[in-house]
Amino acid sequence: MADLSQLVKAYDVRGVVPDQWDEELAALFGAAFAEVTGAGAVVVGHDMRPSSPGLSRAFARGAAGRGLDVTEIGLCSTDELYFASGHLGLAGAMFTASHNPAQYNGIKMCRANAAPIGQDTGLAEIRALVERWMDTGAPEPVEAPGTITQSDVLADYAAHLRSLVDLRRIRPLKVVVDAGNGMGGHTVPTVLDGLPVDLVPMYFELDGTFPHHEANPLDPKNIVDLQDKVRATGADIGLAFDGDADRCFVVDENGDPVPPSAITALVAARELAKHPGGTVIHNLITSWSVPEVVAEHGGKAVRTRVGHSFIKQEMARTGAIFGGEHSAHYYFRDFWNADTGMLAALHVLAALGEQAAPLSELVREYDRYRGSGEINSTVADQAGRTAAVRAAYEGRPGTELDELDGLTVSTPDWWFNLRPSNTEPLLRLNVEARDAATVERVRDEVLAIVRA
């Protein structure tokens, strides 16, 4: 009997196949999705993991059995599924475990126009219904089951992205792309086809066992191959996508990583040029550079909690044109408020190709401070350790504290945020300052308290 408390997360379904879930359970999720959403039709896609086609087809059968018409788009990136949901006006389900190891799989679900489904927006009800049916047996099919048809939206997805960023007149660029054997190997060739780009592909073969490295570019060891290839080929830029290709990481012509906050600031400036006076969302651990650049370009910056559900809620509430996170998730109003690493990558290629300077020089304007990156500490008492840090800084002259998401402590010269993990006994620390020495000093001071 599956333990859905371990399988159903805050924003998606994710677990080991077949240990934690299988095709029989996927069919129940399809049926529950139909019941809870009340949708008339759903578009379903999947990544390249060995278990994905079977799980995806089982979900489709379960949904069709409850009366939904299902459009299967087959192999796709997560942002391609969001495109299909928006373009076709259909609810959606994407089978992927993103950057997790090969034995994992999951479902990211949305309502029509890529509106996310999370714990507070339907996922808890879907879980409850699946649990009930696990006890009582699957529901009988309705008298008029839905249809299951196939469609290919890759060309339409690429055309939509290219309609938003014009790359036809940029200077020629040599671009190394590490797809990590993930879905970037499926989408990148079509999106970049015919553009003035000399594409150097790495690990474009779709292989859900990830034979070369994990498809998680957030971990520095997984971009080493990309960095080496950029230097060896004299490329202008390197791009790395995660397994489901909804996140994109950038390295410059020297092979040095470009912080996602700098990409957020760069793309924000470009979006504000298209939409003067617009609102830009950023989470509270992006760099000071982001709100500064937004203000300098006439926009309004809105700070929010970490996590795509919070970003998307604020995007909808404020009518924001763009949103960015430290984790390299980038959200666009022109993309149904959904996240798409590919569109962010096109913006970076356009910004680079529209002028003569190398990327390292171009991003200096957007990368103004030094950061620690995210540092995790395993602790038995998250609340107690956070309270100890708060006590150490509360009342210090020139220091401000807030608890929008964890604990944030700010001064004119530095800030740090300490957040508990929702799923593990961890505290996550991010520090930023005007110079590296201050980052190290503040980092060490906070960690000494956290790890005492």
From TrEMBL:
Keyword Metal-binding in record: yes
Keyword tags: Isomerase, Magnesium, Metal-binding, Phosphoprotein
Alpha-D-phosphohexomutase alpha/beta/alpha domain ranges (all copies): 6-132, 156-255, 263-369
Cofactor: Mg(2+)
Alpha-D-phosphohexomutase C-terminal domain mapped to chain residues: 374-447
Signal sequence residues: none
Name by which UniProt lists this protein: Phosphomannomutase/phosphoglucomutase
Species whose genome carries this gene: Streptomyces gamaensis
